[in-house]
Write a structure and sequence with these properties.
Elements (H helix, E strand, L loop, with lengths): L1 E5 L10 H16 L4 E6 L13 E5 L5 H17 L3 E4 L11 E5 L16 H20 L2 E4 L2 H11 L6 E3 L15 H4 L8 E5 L8 H13 L8 E5 L3 H10 L9 E5 L6 H7 L2 E4 L8 H8 L4 E4 L4 H5 L4 E3 L4 H13 L1 H14 L5 H17 L1
Parallel strand pairs: 1-2, 1-4, 2-3, 4-5, 5-6, 6-7, 8-9, 8-11, 9-10, 11-12, 12-13
């Protein structure tokens, strides 16, 4: 088969969840499938994280008009030239006009659901509008919809009224460099001067539950002796956002304990996880949650939400809390950082749990699906 895979953003330096899913799956396919020919379509970028091989050609396409221009003009034009048997679009959307057999990875349908809170950034608002317009059209055209968890499969199927055979799920994996580091301070000391800290991946997206998480941390600090306080390291969130939340809730006294380096490179994250006393994953809504696996693989206990797909991925014996209950989150932070025996049990549980997931498993499942679509 000739298989084209849309992976537009994998060459950008500041990658996010869907970028890593596409990149890691493609890398595994490149290793294990020597029968089919692959064409990886990307936008030019500085991080050349994927190299060509006899079974894989990389095509960089530059286009004006941002994401819309790339996906709705440049990509269909290149597909017309390649004439693949299958086009696999990996990031929720796809070209509206394209005659090739289409597979669509739909990570979630949050953009179609009613918003609890409005997005604050213009970029997020435009992205949401674009997906709301395009996705209902390309879903009808797709031979198969792929999502990332059983929870999200059922959610999409029920919300959009899809037939059972139209949609399937393939679990994500986690990158192999996420392992316990013996001397994590050699890296985390770049971001903070202290050894006792809790880690949180922040975001302005309402689903990330940032404000309640900050309030829970404030409650933990309030109930903790000053000499025993663990600092809060917040990545992927600008200091101004934290300052706004602090001022809004009149909790200025926690400012000295919150550290905001903004973006932390993916290569540094294993050291951050390995050094942290706990990782907070208190989202309101997730279709999977790769950071759950990353944290567990690095021996960092995770305090996660009991909502959406998070329990499915974290497992029954993980620490699961009500993300709307600030007091519950605060009490669990206190328990994890102060109870060494409890913390050790969670670390061991996490190291065993992550063995259920890998990008090799994901790639093999995807290859079965390619064959199934081609043979229909």
């Amino acid at each position: 088969m000739k298989i084209a895979i849309e992976a537009q953003r994998i060459f950008r330096t500041k990658k996010h969840g869907m970028d890593f899913v596409a990149l890691e799956t493609i890398r595994e396919i490149q290793k294990i499938d020597t029968e089919n020919q692959y064409y990886i379509l990307v936008s030019p970028g500085e991080d050349k994280c994927l190299e060509e091989s006899p079974n894989m050609k990389i095509i960089e396409k530059k286009c004006f008009g941002g994401y819309f221009g790339w996906e709705q003009y440049a990509l269909p034009k290149e597909i017309k030239h390649i004439k693949p048997d299958i086009l696999h679009c990996t990031s929720n959307t796809a070209p509206i006009f394209c005659k090739t057999n289409l597979l669509l990875t739909l990570h979630d349908i949050i953009f179609l659901e009613k918003q609890v809170h409005k997005n604050k950034s213009l970029y997020q608002k435009l992205g949401r509008l674009y997906r709301r317009l395009v996705v209902p059209i390309v879903i009808r055209r797709s031979k198969k919809i792929i999502t990332v968890s059983s929870y999200e499969k059922n959610n999409i199927k029920d919300f959009l009224g899809l037939e059972e055979q139209k949609i399937c799920f393939i679990y994500n994996g986690y990158s192999k460099h996420f392992v316990r580091k013996d001397n994590p301070e050699q890296v985390y000391k770049k971001y903070l001067d202290f050894d006792n800290y809790i880690f949180f991946l922040g975001n302005t997206d309402p689903k990330k539950n940032t404000e309640r998480t900050i309030l829970a941390y404030a409650a933990y600090v309030k109930n903790t002796n000053q000499d025993n306080i663990n600092y809060l390291l917040v990545a992927d969130l600008k200091k101004e956002i934290i300052d706004f939340i602090i001022k809004k809730n009149n909790i200025q006294w926690i400012k000295p304990y919150i550290l905001t380096p903004n973006y932390i490179p993916n290569t540094d994250l294993p050291y951050i996880y390995s050094g942290a006393k706990a990782f907070l994953y208190t989202s309101l809504r997730e279709s999977f949650g790769i950071p759950i696996l990353e944290s567990m693989a690095c021996g960092c206990p995770i305090i996660a939400s009991n909502t959406s797909a998070i329990p499915e991925i974290a497992g029954q014996n993980a620490i699961l809390v009500d993300p709307y209950n600030v007091s519950e989150i605060a009490l669990m932070i206190e328990k994890v950082v102060n109870n060494d025996e409890f913390r050790k049990k969670q670390i061991q549980y996490g190291l065993e749990r992550v063995k259920e997931f890998s990008w090799t498993k994901s790639a093999n499942e995807l290859l079965k699906l390619y064959k199934e679509v081609q043979n229909k």
